[in-house]
């Protein structure tokens, strides 16, 4: 059972940080600053750690992001999709409207591509 305390865990990488706010049944993860590849690694690690701890409702709050590079963007899409595929209710909030549409479309497209790939092609791609 996850710890539902009101404490805030802060993980930092340079000027970038990840604030974690457990709020009863939901945990809000709030990256702050410029999200580069190194920060994305930290953010994805935090999301996985929360999933492994048993949280099934995760909100990724993007209000505090000032800049997101493309590799970090891809990491966010992949991790949100993986969380959803594993049964976690993972949602995004706080993205600028244009970025939110791209995130939603990217998650849907990635999910559709995985679901519509024939098994023989998937096995060949892995090997």
Short description:
The chain contains 4 helices and 6 strands, in the order E-E-E-H-E-E-H-E-H-H. By secondary structure, it is of the alpha/beta class.
Structure notes:
With 127 residues, the protein is of the alpha/beta class. 47% of the residues lie in helices and 29% in strands. The protein has helices at residues 37-52, 70-85, 97-116, 119-126; strands spanning 9-13, 16-23, 26-35, 57-61, 65-68, 89-93. Helix 1 packs parallel to helix 2. The chain is globular, with a radius of gyration of 15 Å. Mean pLDDT is 75; it is low at 110-127.
Indicate the low-confidence ranges by residue numbers: 110-127
Q: Tell me roughly what share of residues is in helical segments.
A: 40-55%
Backbone CA Rg: 15 Å
The assigned structural class equals: alpha/beta
* Global geometry: globular
The number of helical segments is 4
**Mean of pLDDT:** 75
- Tally of strands: 6
Order of helices and strands: EEEHEEHEHH
Tags for this entry?
127 residues; alpha/beta; 47% helix; globular; disordered C terminus
Secondary-structure topology with pairs:
Layout: E1 9-13, E2 16-23, E3 26-35, H1 37-52, E4 57-61, E5 65-68, H2 70-85, E6 89-93, H3 97-116, H4 119-126
Parallel strand pairs: 3-4, 3-5, 4-6
Antiparallel strand pairs: 1-2, 2-3
Helix pairs in contact: 1-2, 2-3
